[in-house]
Design brief:
It contains 8 helices and 4 strands. With 188 residues, the chain is mainly alpha-helical. The chain folds into 2 domains: 2-118, no CATH class; 130-187, no CATH class. It has a two-stranded antiparallel ribbon. Helix 3 (63-73) packs across helix 4 (82-91).
Length: 188
């Protein structure tokens, strides 16, 4: 349960950061009239997520079907072994009191993002971080742009920036090379 919460929380924070960056860029470039489009897109994504979770929770699915769905939805995690996908499927579901299988997270978790969009810009807080920091970014990230990641190396804690090849926005840290990057950082 805790692992599912952490994954959902991480996804929420990443989404909030991206939306905050987009809104900040629009403000900086004088195109604040486009904010409405961003909010509509965010609302549509939130509704789609809730509807998808609702429909999934009502479906009679088995673990193999859930694994196939996870492989599709989380394809941006990059190439994974069958064992990894099976593990994700085994830890991403729960059985309801009615005996149905459903995803193991609360789709309402993202609701706070639409209620407090002004909280999405965290550069001031990032600039106050004083400990050494490691930023892992998947080269195919659709959440954290390379430009933003590079900006993070020039401000705040001047993070160490490592891009992970063949990966979307969030490396799973389940392969030796990714683990070694973290181990070397912690040992430095």
């Amino acid at each position: 349960m805790f692992q599912s919460f952490v994954i959902a929380l991480r996804e929420g924070v990443e989404a909030a950061l991206i939306v905050g960056i987009v809104l900040g860029h629009l403000r900086k470039t004088g195109r604040e009239s486009w904010r409405r489009v961003v909010y509509w897109g965010l609302a549509a994504a939130l509704v789609a997520s809730i509807v998808g979770a609702f429909l999934l929770s009502r479906m009679e699915i088995n673990q193999e079907a859930l694994e196939g769905w996870l492989r599709t939805v989380y394809a941006t995690f990059g190439p994974q072994t069958d064992v990894t996908w099976r593990h994700l499927a085994e830890t991403s579901w729960r059985r309801t009191d009615a005996g149905k299988i459903t995803v193991h997270y609360d789709p309402r978790l993202m609701g706070h993002l639409t209620m407090h969009p002004e909280d999405w810009n965290h550069w001031a807080a990032y600039d106050r971080v004083q400990c050494k920091t490691l930023l892992l970014r998947g080269m195919a990230s659709d959440v954290l742009s390379r430009e933003t990641a590079e900006a993070m190396t020039r401000r705040g804690p001047h993070c160490r920036f490592v891009e992970i090849e063949y990966c979307g926005h969030a490396p799973m840290l389940n392969v030796l090379m990714e683990q070694q990057v973290v181990e070397e950082f912690l040992a430095s």
